[in-house]
Design goal:
The structure holds 2 protein chains of 2 kinds. Helix content of chain A is 0%, strand content 55%. Chain A has strands spanning 4-7, 10-13, 18-25, 31-37, 44-50, 53-57, 64-70, 73-79, 87-94, 106-107, 111-115. In chain A, strands 2, 4, 5, 6, 9, 10 and 11 form a 7-stranded mixed sheet that branches. Chain A is globular and about 40 Å long. By secondary structure, chain B is mostly beta strands. Chain B has no helices and 11 strands. In chain B, strands 2, 4, 5, 9, 10 and 11 form a 6-stranded mixed sheet that branches. In chain B, strands 1-3-8-7-6 form a 5-stranded antiparallel sheet, with no helix packed on it. Classes of the chains: A mainly beta, B mainly beta. At the A-B interface, strand 10 of A face strand 4, strand 5, strand 9 and strand 10 of B.
Chain lengths: 116, 113
Amino acid sequence: ETGVTQTPRHLVMGMTNKKSLKCEQHLGHNAMYWYKQSAKKPLELMFVYSLEERVENNSVPSRFSPECPNSSHLFLHLHTLQPEDSALYLCASSQALGGGGGNTIYFGEGSWLTVV
Amino acid sequence: GESVGLHLPTLSVQEGDNSIINCAYSNSASDYFIWYKQESGKGPQFIIDIRSNMDKRQGQRVTVLLNKTVKHLSLQIAATQPGDSAVYFCAENLRTGGFKTIFGAGTRLFVKA
């Protein structure tokens, strides 16, 4: 239990579906992140939120739409995805922006997404 | 450029031996270097970090060494146990142009009983 909870753990969706991934952190952190993890690829940072404001969008296609209604919750809305978007989507949080030195980034267990 | 890479994709060690996982980085503008462990079906878990002005830091059964001259980072695990079997990622935290933590590709550690 890392204090970062992601639902659903597994999701299969068609290319025309709309679905959402949910993340909740119970650590009182101010920064939240979405990462994508594909087979044989490094973790890719997608979005960063600090105090509910998006501070980074790493050239992510618009079919991925993040939402941060408060500092404890983060959503990733999915629409018209492609099969190559199938991956593990990891949510993470930290006390403040950055990693290391007291701002350790804590990850959730991830949501396995399969696009068919 | 900005890149963090690993020398070996897999490492196999005998239980009880010491493990050394290596990582090369290319960016000098990092304030922290971090090691994560990811077990099958789980998210990455923080192991240890080291500030860029340090050469060595020790934790419980783990030691991280930083050689800034050759831009090399290593994680040493003492008395490797079966529970250490996982993928290990190094990461660097950049402080230029805003926040960015870059992860390496990962090394899979197999521990043989």
